[in-house]
Amino acid sequence: xxxxxxxxxxxxxxxxxxxxxxxxxxxxxxxxxxxxxxxxxxxxxxxxxxxxxxxxxxxxxxxxxxxxxxxxxxxxxxxxxxxxxxxxxxxxxxxxxxxxxxxxxxxxxxxxxxxxxxxxxxxxxxxxxxxxxxxxxxxxxxxxxxxxxxxxxxxxxxxxxxxxxxxxxxxxxxxxxxxxxxxxxxxxxxxxxxxxxxxxxxxxxxxxxxxxxxxxxxxxxxxxxxxxxxxxxxxxxxxxxxxxxxxxxxxxxxx
Length: 255
Fold this sequence. Notes:
This protein is 38% helix and 25% strand. The protein is an alpha/beta fold. The strands form 2 sheets. The protein has a 6-stranded mixed sheet with strand order 9-8-5-6-7-10. The chain has a 4-stranded mixed sheet with strand order 3-1-2-4, with helices on both faces. Helix 5 (128-148) runs parallel beside helix 7 (188-201) and helix 6 crosses helix 7. The protein starts with a strand and ends in a 5-residue tail after the last helix.
C-alpha cells in the first residue's frame, strides 16, 4: 500500500501525520474535525498552507501542547483549541437591520466537544451592541454555575465593545459614579449588572476575543443561533432542542 500523509487542519493537534492511526488520534470524536490524506509530503505541506510540523507514529503521542495566547489580540482557531479549560463558551449577537430585530446565541463545548446551543432574547428594537452584550451576559451567568461545579471556563466573544465594556471601561465608569466625560453611557442597564457579575468570577474565568466569520466553529454556531432567535422571534433564552448536527446548523441563515 502506498504511503500517505494526513493533514489535520482542525483536530486535537493540527499538523501533518505520516500514518492513519496517528491522524485518527487527533480527529476521532473531535467536533468539527477537518482532515484529508495526500500521496506526498510536499502536497500535504502545500495543502496545510504554511510550514507545518510533521508527526510520525511515535512522535504523534508527544505532539506539543500549544500555549494559549492571552494577549489583547484576537485568537485564531488553532489558539482557541489550545486554550486549556474544560468548558468553552462562544457568544454572538445579531441584528437585522441594525438597529432592528436582534437576538443572541451561545455555543458551549465540553472538552472541545459541542455539548449545547442556546438562542433567544429577541428584541424587535435592538442593536448589534445590545445583542452582543446580552450574549456575553448569558455566558457569564452560565460560567457562574459551572464554576460552582468546579469546572474551568473560557468565554470567546467577537465583540470587542462588549469585552471592553465590562473588563476595562466599566472600572472607570464605576469610579466616576457611572458617568463618563462627553455624554451618556449607552446600554448602562445591561453593563452595570454584567460588570458586577464579571467582578465576582473574573479570577476564575478567561475571556478572549475572536474575529467573527473566519471559520471558528464555535463562533459560527453562536452566530447561527443569534439569527435563529431573530427568525423565530424567541424571547426567552432557550436551549436548542434539535440534533447537534454541525453541518445542518451551519447551513442555517448567517448574521
